[in-house]
Prior knowledge:
Order of helices and strands: EEEHHEEEHHHEEEEEEEHEEEHEEEE
Oligomer: single chain
CATH architecture of the largest domain: Alpha-Beta Complex
Radius of gyration: 18 Å
Shape: globular
Number of domains: 2
Strand content: 25-35%
CATH superfamily of the largest domain: Fumarylacetoacetase-like, C-terminal domain
CATH topology of the largest domain: Fumarylacetoacetate hydrolase, domain 2
Number of strands: 20
Amino acid sequence: MRLCRFADRLGLVTGDTVTDVTAALAALPAQHYPFPRGDLLIENLPALAAPIAAAARDGRRHALKDLTLVSPVANAGKVVAAPVNYRNHLDEARSDPGIHHQREVAEIQRVGLFLKAASSIAGPGDGITIRHPDRRTDHEIELAVVIGAAADRVTRADAMRHVAGYCIGLDITVRGPEERSLRKSVDSYTTLGPWLVTADEIADPGALDLMLAVNGETRQQANTRDLIIGIPELIAFASSFYTLLPGDVLLTGTPEGVGPIVPGDLIEATISGIGTMQVKVRAAAPR
């Protein structure tokens, strides 16, 4: 399945058409305060397959081009990110003072993972809002892995059983000397979309092409087979430190070619097997 969100609605994507399947959400279990952690929809995706199919028979149909898509994950508890997880990007980061700011850029095996605020998540229709126009802000395309079942100290062999699906991720970054988690947690700096592709539709997430263009100029192009640490290993690594919950998002790393974006730019990001999303870059409203 390919599931998107628009306004407060849930959509099933088929080609250029989106069928409103919001009625299927009635099958979700009731919740009461204090609400459990995690994303209820993502956690219950397998059980919702039949209700979604039923809702699709009578659901209203929309042209995809007419909808403003928000993040396909509504309630991520955390975003776990893998820094410098492509060899060529590691070399790029070490050679560009605009990236490293006189700080050592260490291998992912040494530096580990980092967290981004869940409040940084936005969808393609939300756009990216540049909060610090006086500083360099870069694009980074990444395969985003969405966790579907709680993962606590899982093995590499069992890791993929905990994946609900995949989407395109943009890890937007303010360059500077501060810690990554600060510079990458700005509102809208984790752009997810255009929809969630369930895990059963991606035979090998370790062999997907990635491409990012800004204003029609291709800047990043690679394949997930070039990851230094693969997806099962990343899930096992992350879950050895903290439990991954349904709806948590794992950003797997970006390839070489990162570069600055400014208000007015249009980003086009594509990952094979998932699709393409266009994201506008905007200036922050004055305060």
